[in-house]
Design goal:
By secondary structure, the chain is of the alpha+beta class. The protein has helices at 3-37, 40-48, 52-61, 64-101, 109-141, 143-149, 151-160, 162-178, 193-205, 211-223, 228-231, 247-257, 278-282, 308-318, 338-346, 375-382, 394-401, 448-451; strands at 233-234, 241-242, 261-265, 272-277, 300-303, 322-326, 332-337, 360-363, 366-370, 411-414, 417-425, 428-436, 456-457. The longest helix is centred in the first third of the chain and has 38 residues, at 64-101.
Length: 464
């Protein structure tokens, strides 16, 4: 074998080594992304079905710190090897012959510098494209398959270099502790609420989950933030039976309202003493005199600031379907039922006796909303940002803007919408019609941001 054949043979083996190092770098990169992104629940399912690969991948996923260190070690080793072998091999095979072809080769420093820069650029390109980007994209798009097929090779590499990985991990932890930072572990990889919302939103956009599932998911998160005051039926809407009234009169309330359970008060709603079940009342002879005390059952009372999740747990513990909400002064603020709380998650539940309109009714350009809807729910519905720390409901907000002048037909223009009272009872706004505000001339427009007030229009459209 002459010298030229030996050199070409050496170049060939170096190039083969370069290709192998790029491939191994890609394997470690793909493994790193796959073991992080793969769903542990899916691996557990496959493992339960008898998949050996899934069983090994599950073990790796449960020891992420250690195996991520293994992938990092592999990436570092292959990258260093690529830098050591790749540049000379590419220089000898591609760059030097190319420079000789154009008469630029020589022993001067300039030709060596140009040769090094070109060879380095080519190796870097191969490293990034085939050793980083392509494997990463493959692992993201085929997470499950990559995690399964690379589980055993990664485990073998981990076992082979376990002493080195252990030393590197402990050294890194010592450095972190020396500067006052506690190393993170697998148990600290939990997602925040906002991160989970983003993940679920992306899943909804890609069609993995439908809109109804996404709505339920949002409701679950918002459920934990709700308090009794925001969900309760206000005291003005409560149907109450009174101990100081004739049985026939109380029975008339039952026939008209058709509820299952009724709070019972002494003389007013601030003195609730218990509740009665409709079955007890309907089985009694209406021609006889009856005292509601004979059917009276203890009723749960909760403060208006209590979270509804805690109220629900309390109801379950006490086996109660009804709770009276008490304000800060000890008076009755409203009433909560188990159904009201559950509706915060699953949406409104109507039965054959419900005559009320749904909270939201859309007819053409008009959105009819219940005055008791929470401001934040209206914000989500309309895509606006009403803020008011004094009231919780949209009816209360409109009442404040109208300064208590409640009259059907009166309206307020705010946040690009017209809010018009559609139904009211005395001073309580029951239903509001919302429409998009038409652009007004600049001279007639009121800048709410500057003045703090919006145009208020009366029944006939005049400003008030």
């Amino acid at each position: 074998m002459n010298h030229a054949e030996f050199e070409w043979g050496l170049i060939f083996w170096n190039l083969l080594l370069v290709a192998l190092l790029v491939f191994l770098n890609g394997v470690f990169v793909a493994a790193e992304f796959a073991i992080v992104k793969v769903r542990q629940s899916r691996l557990a399912q496959l493992s339960g079905e008898g998949s050996v690969l899934a069983r090994q991948a599950l073990r790796i996923n449960r020891k992420l710190d250690a195996y991520l260190s293994a992938t990092q070690l592999g990436i570092t080793m292959t990258s260093l090897g690529l830098g050591w072998v790749g540049e000379p091999a590419v220089d000898d095979l591609i760059v030097t012959p190319l420079l000789e072809r154009f008469g630029l080769a020589g022993d001067n420093k300039l030709s060596h510098s140009v040769s090094f820069i070109i060879a380095f650029a080519i190796v870097t390109f191969l490293h990034i494209v085939f050793g980083e980007l392509a494997p990463k994209s493959l692992a993201i798009r085929r997470t499950e398959g990559v995690a399964l097929w690379l589980s055993w090779p990664l485990h073998a590499f981990y076992r082979l270099f376990l002493p080195v990985i252990w030393l590197l991990n402990h050294t890194a932890n010592l450095v972190l502790r020396a500067i006052g930072i506690e190393p993170a572990g697998e148990t600290e990889t939990a997602h925040t609420e906002e991160e989970i919302r983003i993940l679920m939103s992306q899943s909804a956009k890609s069609g993995v989950i439908d809109k109804e599932e996404m709505k339920l998911f949002d409701n679950v998160f918002e459920f934990s933030d709700r308090v009794a005051r925001e969900v309760m039926l206000p005291r003005t809407d409560m149907d109450v039976l009174y101990l100081n009234r004739p049985f026939e009169e109380n029975l008339k309330v039952v026939y008209e309202s058709r509820h299952t359970r009724y709070p019972v008060a002494l003389a007013d709603k601030d003195h609730i003493v218990g509740f009665v079940h409709i079955s007890d009342l309907l089985t009694a002879d209406p021609r006889e005199k009856h005292d509601l005390r004979r059917w009276l059952r203890p009723i749960l009372t909760v403060p208006e600031s209590m979270e509804i999740s805690k109220v629900l747990r309390l109801m379950q513990k006490r086996k109660s379907q009804l709770a009276i909400v008490i304000d800060e002064y000890g008076g009755t603020a409203g009433m909560l039922t188990a159904q009201m709380i559950l509706e915060e998650i699953v949406g409104e539940i109507h039965d054959e006796f419900d005559d009320d309109l749904p909270s939201v009714v859309i007819k053409g350009d008009v959105i009819s909303i219940d005055g008791r809807m929470l401001i934040e729910e209206v914000n989500d519905l309309l895509g606006i940002e009403i803020e008011d720390e004094e009231v919780d409901s949209i009816g209360g907000w409109l009442f404040r803007l109208l300064e208590g002048n409640v009259e059907v037909g009166r309206s307020v223009t705010a946040h690009g919408h017209v809010f018009e009272i559609a139904q009211a009872e005395r001073l309580r706004i029951q239903r509001i019609h919302v429409t998009k505000a038409k652009s007004a001339p600049a001279s007639d427009a009121t800048d709410a941001g500057a003045s703090g007030r919006e145009p208020v229009r009366g029944r006939n459209g005049e400003e008030g």
